[in-house]
């Protein structure tokens, strides 16, 4: 008796299914390749970012102060709420300064959960590896309270570890502010001095008119060429953070499809 798969319509359906699956996985692997290219490229010069993670405004105010301080030193960064920042853009950043508070159970404020989860899942995803943020220099200042013991500044500490694990270079050591009994303002000032020191070093290193990859402000806005480059290199990393099936499974799925078609 002929098997159900030997009929012409069944074979055509399977062939169509097989082709669709193949194209889907080719598309996915192309995106992964694209991501690697993006990661390994050193041509990404976007303006530096100051990201703040804040619920009641403490970190936001400090971030604003840092923004003003840098501007008064001739260095203009974008000031961005982590809540509205697309973490998939992190691989394109050259320098990111984060001011982050910690809330209940050592978690970030609810608005920054997506950002925090993206980092945590990227670290866990073996396909992303330690090169994802290779071109990204960073520094973190934590805002919290020592009254919370081991959870003091847990979010800021976690960010440092995760960004390091993803290949980012920490250009200033973690700064820690204690809102209860600590010298928050003084500690933040000291951390800011280190940031300014680093950036000034970069200015000297690159020369007055050099292309300052770390995002030191060059009064000319980004050239059209750069904008086009960025446009071209937009990568959807949503799947990278754990949603796509691992490669081994993909290969196994393809083998099964092939066997079915050859039946
Ligand atoms: C309910 C609650 C939970 C908190 N949990 C922590 C914590 O686990 N670790 C910590 O370092 N600080 C903790 N804090 C202190 C906050 O980080 C601190 O109030 C900070 O100023 C909040 O900054 P923001 O206004 O930028 O959100 C907590 C504060 C509150 C009110």
TrEMBL record:
Pfam families noted in UniProt: Flavodoxin_1
Membrane-spanning residues: 6-27
Domain Flavodoxin-like per the UniProt entry, residue ranges: 48-196
Superkingdom of source: Eukaryota
Name of the protein in question: Flavodoxin-like domain-containing protein
GO biological process: wybutosine biosynthetic process
Source organism of the structure: Arachis hypogaea (Peanut)
PROSITE patterns: FLAVODOXIN_LIKE
SUPFAM superfamilies reported in the protein's UniProt record: Flavoproteins
Keywords: Membrane, Transmembrane, Transmembrane helix
Transmembrane in keyword set: yes
MF-aspect GO terms: 4 iron, 4 sulfur cluster binding; FMN binding
Matches recorded under Gene3D superfamilies: 3.40.50.360
């Amino acid at each position: 008796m002929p098997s159900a798969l030997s009929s012409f319509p069944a074979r055509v359906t399977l062939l169509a299914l097989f082709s669709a699956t193949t194209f889907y996985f080719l598309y996915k692997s192309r995106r992964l390749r694209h991501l690697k290219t993006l990661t390994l490229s050193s041509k990404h010069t976007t303006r530096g970012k100051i990201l703040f993670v804040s619920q009641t405004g403490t970190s936001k105010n400090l971030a604003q102060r840092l923004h003003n301080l840098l501007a008064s030193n001739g260095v203009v960064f974008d000031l961005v709420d982590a809540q509205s920042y697309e973490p998939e853009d992190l691989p394109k950043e050259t320098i990111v300064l984060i001011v982050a508070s910690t809330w209940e159970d050592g978690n970030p404020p609810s608005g920054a959960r997506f950002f925090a989860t993206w980092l945590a899942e990227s670290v866990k995803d073996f396909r992303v590896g330690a090169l994802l943020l290779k071109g990204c220099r960073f520094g973190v200042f934590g805002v919290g309270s020592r009254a919370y013991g081991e959870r003091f500044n847990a979010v800021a500490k976690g960010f440092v570890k995760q960004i390091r694990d993803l290949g980012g270079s920490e250009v200033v050591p973690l700064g820690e502010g204690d809102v209860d009994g600590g010298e928050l303002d003084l500690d933040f000032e000291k951390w800011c001095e280190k940031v300014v020191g680093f950036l000034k070093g970069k200015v000297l290193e690159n020369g007055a008119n050099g292309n300052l990859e770390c995002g030191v402000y060059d009064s000319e806005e980004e050239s059209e060429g750069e904008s086009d480059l960025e446009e071209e290199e937009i990568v959807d990393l949503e799947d990278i953070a754990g949603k796509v099936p691992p490669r081994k499974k993909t290969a196994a799925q393809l083998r099964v499809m092939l066997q079915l078609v050859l039946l």
